[in-house]
Each structure stands twice: as C-alpha cells, then as structure tokens.
C-alpha cells in the first residue's frame, strides 16, 4: 500500500510536516492553491459564459471543466515526482501545501476580534473574504453563526479530510480531493449561475468529504462532549444538510452550546432556507465564535497527539524487531 511505504521511510517527517502546516503556514498570497483558485475562476468564465443554456449542456460543460482542471495539474505533479531526487520529501511538501487551513483560521480570528470590538462594518468586510453568502446585512449574531459554521466545516474539509485520504490512498489521492474541494467552492451551486454547471464537482465532493465530517464528529466526541453530540445529531433535520454535515455541525453545537443553521442569503434576490440545528440552545454571539476557535484548536491538538503516538509506536515496533 502506498501510504505504508511512505510511513516506512519517513514517519517522523510526516508528523513534522503536520506541525509545520500548523505553526509555519505559507501566506495565501504566495500559496500555489491561490493560483489554482484563480485558474478555476477563469476556466468557469470561459466554459460557462451563458448560464441560460440547457441543463444537459451546463452539466456537460461542468464535467469537461472538472476534468480539464484536475487531470493536467495531477499529471504535472505526478511527472515532477519522477524528476525529484527525493520523491518522498516532494510528496510531503505537497501534503504541507494541501493543509492550508491556517489562513482560513486567521481570517476567522480577525472576524472575531472585529465583532468583539463592535466594529460591525469591518466584520462584514472580513466575513466577505471567508464566506460565500452576502454579508452586507448580517448582524453580529449572523456573522458569529456564519463564522462558526465556516470554521468548523472548513477544518473538517481542508485538514481532516485531506489527512484521511492521504493516509488511506497516498499523496495523489489527497491532492486530487483537495483540488476537487477548491473547484466545488469556486463553482458553488449555491449561486444561481453555477447551479447546473457546478453540479458534477459538487456531487463528487459531496461524497469524498464525508470522512472529514465524520472524523470531526468523532474527535469532538473523544475530546469534548460525546453524549450531547449524539443527541444533537439525532435531533438534526436531514432535509438541508446531508448526514455527514449534520454530524459535523451537531458536534459544534454540542461543544459550543449554541444553535446553528437557519436562512442564508447567497445572492441579493435569493434566500436559501436551511434547517436549524440545536434549537434548544441560544443563538450564538462573538463569545461563541471565540469558543469555537478554542475548541477547533483542541481538536487539532488531539489529532497531532494521536498521530504522534502512532509515530512513536511505529518506532518502538521497528526497534523491537
């Protein structure tokens, strides 16, 4: 298995890469994935110029765009691997680049600080850089709720999900899933002009993101509140969020003691009605957003601890044999 071969050569290096991704993240302005986001935006403008075309044409365009975005980049990265003197280090570098959650967290921290200082206009501007939805009319409550949801879901998507697919199938599967997530975000079906064009990427990402959501739920159960997380999951409606998303957000509700979900405006003329989660809890405020940042950091520390223990156990096993 590819992941086993990589761990045999550099288990400690894997743990070091995870630490570097947390402590020394690459700035977004210099990050290669920023270029890929720009490429995805330009590609959508070229192949989806008229959202009024037939549904079949839009979905065909979305499928071809998905292949055109993924295959050349994956082929280039895979070919480069053969040219490297140390391919294992090259693959660990790719993993480091895929774990680019720190930039998202920093934006949420700035949002929380603006809300704490009651600088609502600044908070709305900061939120617009993180959220897809309209932020001009959001109150402090709405910004806090949106910030919590974004922090929790993107941590599961970017960090936990990428790590899961890396350990399961190696770096190439992890990179493919990470690039797919970017395409799903840039071609979000929550916007009317992407409703059918972005459907292929959204459908594929919907299932490949399940492991990250469930890992988040299980880690919160281990580290924070287990019984309450299961209770909120049982109470969660299943019409708006899929089961995995409900589990992820239910764990957030349980650990923070606030409700999430509810209506969201993604375009000026279009309001998306979403189910509410944990209706027996109060609405969130900036203090809950600060608590969410602390809880997410605790879950991250738990992941690093578990992997560190696994690395130590691996070396002990190797030493005894």
From TrEMBL:
<keyword id="KW-0169">Cobalamin biosynthesis</keyword>
<keyword id="KW-0472">Membrane</keyword>
<dbReference type="GO" id="GO:0048472">
    <property type="term" value="F:threonine-phosphate decarboxylase activity"/>
</dbReference>
<feature type="transmembrane region" description="Helical">
    <location>
        <begin position="203"/>
        <end position="222"/>
    </location>
</feature>
<dbReference type="InterPro" id="IPR004485">
    <property type="entry name" value="Cobalamin_biosynth_CobD/CbiB"/>
</dbReference>
<keyword id="KW-1003">Cell membrane</keyword>
<protein>
    <submittedName>
        <fullName>Adenosylcobinamide-phosphate synthase</fullName>
    </submittedName>
</protein>
<comment type="pathway">
    <text>Cofactor biosynthesis; adenosylcobalamin biosynthesis.</text>
</comment>
<feature type="transmembrane region" description="Helical">
    <location>
        <begin position="60"/>
        <end position="78"/>
    </location>
</feature>
<feature type="transmembrane region" description="Helical">
    <location>
        <begin position="84"/>
        <end position="104"/>
    </location>
</feature>
<keyword id="KW-0812">Transmembrane</keyword>
<feature type="transmembrane region" description="Helical">
    <location>
        <begin position="163"/>
        <end position="183"/>
    </location>
</feature>
<comment type="similarity">
    <text>Belongs to the CobD/CbiB family.</text>
</comment>
<dbReference type="Pfam" id="PF03186">
    <property type="entry name" value="CobD_Cbib"/>
</dbReference>
<feature type="transmembrane region" description="Helical">
    <location>
        <begin position="12"/>
        <end position="39"/>
    </location>
</feature>
<dbReference type="GO" id="GO:0009236">
    <property type="term" value="P:cobalamin biosynthetic process"/>
</dbReference>
<dbReference type="GO" id="GO:0005886">
    <property type="term" value="C:plasma membrane"/>
</dbReference>
<feature type="transmembrane region" description="Helical">
    <location>
        <begin position="299"/>
        <end position="320"/>
    </location>
</feature>
<keyword id="KW-1133">Transmembrane helix</keyword>
